[in-house]
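Quick one, T. Sequence first:
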Amino acid sequence: MTPTDAQIKDWMNKQPQAFRDTPTVRARKIGLWVLLIGLFAWCLYDFNFSPERIWVGLQRLGTVVSFMFPPHLWETWPEWVEVFTALGETVAMAFLGTVLGLIIAFPVSFLGAKNITRIFFLRHTARRGYDIIRAFETLILALIFIRAFGLGPLAGILAIAVSEIGTFGKLFSEALENTSKRPVEGVVASGGSRFQSILYGIMPQVLPVHLSIILYNFESNVRSSTILGIVGAGGIGFMLSDRIAGLFWDQVWTIIFLIIAMVYIVDYLSGLIRTRVIGKWEGAH
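Structure tokens:
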């Protein structure tokens, strides 16, 4: 018989000691809190975090922000074309990197799913491969590819593509593993082959999940491609870095505003696609 909340409360009032942590558990909790607080305080000290430094920094930041207003508006069409071309280059970089990573990661993800790949060594190798690739930050990959291929969007595209292979591979394989076995058993029971069981039993379950992952990562890559441009991978980030170096703070603010607008538009369109396409797919199944 399960005790009621009233009974538990009554027992706690009568025997409060029985419901408290033991001295050992309390000592562990106190020790953990002391360790975390001490580590936090040491980091603040080691990084020279002081109220005076924060106050001086905020004053300098206020000076920089004051230089951004009023925002700069370019007066000639060729200047606006340069800005819009950079914005388009940033979106194209994210799109191509996402697609290239997807093309490679989609077939590779089947190797990491235990309900599809029964060979432990092959599956384990694929999963560790995803982890190794994801260990490299996109920015580091961009710096490496810039050194190899030179400045420009190609380095950014390759950096995003390589990073997405690890991310897509891991997420896709996990989605494959979390599918229901009943549709697969139905296909096999009707005489279907192993390939047909995957095609008709598993894929209809994971395609909406895959599409949602792809759209989300594309949104993230649009933001990442802006940062990659700052280190030399082209796009609007490169223009932003150039204006910061030249202390053209009014143009910097305008470019930042355009980046925010670009990200908002991409997120909005991605949300529409996710709602309509995935909604229709789930409704049909």
